[in-house]
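For reproducibility, we list the full input for the magnesium ion complex.
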Amino acid sequence: MAIALPPEVRQALRMLHDGGYQAYAVGGCVRDSLLGRVPADWDVTTSAAPEQVRRLLSAYPVIETGLKHGTLTVRIGGRPLEITTYRVDMGGRDHRHPDAVRFTPCLTEDLARRDFTVNAMAYNEEEGLIDRFGGQEDLERRLLRCVGEPDRRFEEDALRILRALRFASVLDFAIDEASAGSLVRKRGLLVHVSAERVREELLRLLRGTAPAAVLRRFPSVIGTVLPELTAMVGFDQNNPHHLYDVYEHTIRSVEAAPPDPVVRTALLFHDSGKPASYTEDEQGVGHFRGHAAVSLQLAEQALARLKFDKASSVRILALIRYHDAAVSPTPASLRRWLNRLGEEGLRQLLLVKAADNLAQHPAYHGRQAEIRRLETLLDEVLAQRQCFSLTDLAVNGRDLQAAGIPAGPGMGMLLHTLLEDVIEGRCENDRQVLLSRAALLFDTQREGNA
Ligand code: ATP
Ligand code: MG
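The corresponding predicted structure, in tokenized form, follows.
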């Protein structure tokens, strides 16, 4: 089994070998290479102590990434390589980090500290693949399995619980029964994982190719980090639009959308307010009036707790708020939405609507054609550079001042009124037309005040 190592990795391995040490590519890069995926980064494991690594690779810039854990980052030909000395992790009383690490001359010990069998393989050109824990077989079976005893491994580092879910989604792997049972039992340990790490793992899970299977199989783990979603699980909708309970609908909508983290996060929360908004009519049909506002509140709370950045939060919350709002197939309506959300935001809203619809009863999938029509119309509005924001307006504050209208809050209101007139199609976006309309509006305003 040959893996094509990048020249920079071969160079590092060769220099370490020449210095008399063992060295291998290890972990995710080996896994991804065997799967035919392009590795995100290349890690090297070596019997050389950090000082030896530094000495042998002194021709290259070195960053002390995690020196006390034995990790140096060496930049070779523009590629940063993480080079870690063989080590054994000891303790883990905080359920997240080892209490101490011990360097070891033994590769097998280093592989044994790694989380999953498919992440515990090493490779170099002289010896080929080193696979002490059945990683290759698990790759073939598309299975994530803990190295060693699952309970102990999740207790040492609770982040592995979320890594398991994330890899399952990204690689479209199943999680072996013993590891799956253990991570469900140990889910309470997730309180020891920082909000930032939880957020990053969740986003990677959502962006993966198979998020639905993971969300479906592990609602209790998801509910541990996102309790806002729990009420949806098994919540019957009693409505002909819906074939699935709220959670199953949510899961299907996530997977029906492209892997855009903002869109998929919005979909994960879009109906979270439904259980709290449920009412039944005389026919026993379920309704969820005003649920978007409740979903918005729940999402706001979750995003703040997980420290989402401001820009993403604003975007995600707008998509949740408007996921059920009507977008009419008219240029004026699209200009209004462009003004509210911008081009990227509106495109994301249409993706949310399309995915939401695909996760409803197939009898209603005719709505897909309407959404595609909206996209075409949006392309036209944008191609024609139609005006939908103050910067597109053919006049600005200085023009109005030159026409004798004094600066001040009244001026801002006037500009917004002109923009609204243009967006609604009541008025052409033309300098002369807008100037005379401004003069008229200004006079009326003054008379009103007099
Ligand atoms: P990716 O880079 O795609 O996230 P990866 O498997 O390379 O996947 P990294 O976080 O880059 O993951 O870690 C590199 C290797 O280090 C892993 O393959 C695994 O062998 C080991 N590793 C990383 N994090 C842990 C952990 N929390 N517990 C045990 N081993 C880990
Ligand atoms: Mg990696």
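Residues 27-28, 40-41, 43, 114-115, 119-120, 157, 159-160 surround adenosine-5'-triphosphate (ligand 1) (CB under 6 Å). The CA atoms of residues 93 and 99 lie 7 Å apart. Both points were considered when choosing residues for closer inspection.
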